[in-house]
Design goal:
This protein has 3 domains: 5-109, Glutaredoxin; 113-178, Serine Threonine Protein Phosphatase 5, Tetratricopeptide repeat (Alpha Horseshoe), CATH 1.25.40.10; 196-279, Tetratricopeptide repeat domain (Serine Threonine Protein Phosphatase 5, Tetratricopeptide repeat, Alpha Horseshoe), CATH 1.25.40. Helix content is 60%, strand content 10%. It has 14 helices and 5 strands. The longest helix has 16 residues, at 36-51. The model has no long low-confidence stretch (mean pLDDT 92).
Amino acid sequence: MSEHALDVGLADFDQHVLEESKQRPVVVDFWAPWCGPCKSLKPILEKLAAEYGGKFLLAKINSDDNQDLAARYGVRGIPSVKAFIDGEPVDEFSGALPEGEVRAFLDRLIPSAADEMRRQAAAARMAGDITGALQLLAEASKLDPGHLGVRLDAADIMLDLNEAEEARRLIASVPDDVDPRVPQMKARLQFMDAAGEDEVALSARVAANENDLEARLKLANLHVAAGQYEAGMDQLLEIIQRDRSFREDIGRTTLLSVFNLLGGSELVSRYRRKLASALN
């Protein structure tokens, strides 16, 4: 038996399946000693677990001894194979498939080299290494030119850098329904277009004249486009407090647009309270 295949029961299911699947895919094989097809599938799964060398973990569950687990995950016939990623079942098949089909099932689960590079890029970005993140995404794109997630990750960074045209080019190549980030990014682009000037110039205008509400509005749009939501909303609140009538209450309506962009987050709840206070 491979070191990447083990027997699992109710007592250690959370550890070996749910928690482990946050590190790599876990393939759960529900089987029983009396099941003929299980005896055909089991050696195929064990062979591939060894061959793939730790890219996934095979967890074998005797469904007779673990009926609660089988019921929890809707096992109605065996063998039943379910794949877990990040603690959730993401794919499955029933019956004894030939090795080629099992291999294809596994290949859908296991991150590609481009996916791994994308993960490294996210870590670099989190650490503040934007240049490194972009280099990793460029390499990932070379490995898989059609990877839409890589394009969106790069577009997100371009938005943060106020590189509107490059962000627009990347976003335009991805359909809206592929990833929930696409509509959000398009909304951020609209805020960027509404700004029309660079941050340094707009900040200088506000510093020179605190009542330059046009500059404040453009600065707010620029902050929101760059993902600096609190800074942007603070400027919009300032506009509301200084002159509710400015451009037909555009401070309030723009703030509501930011709320829609961000959805039901704690940040939105906090700024809704600030807006209510400003309007009283």
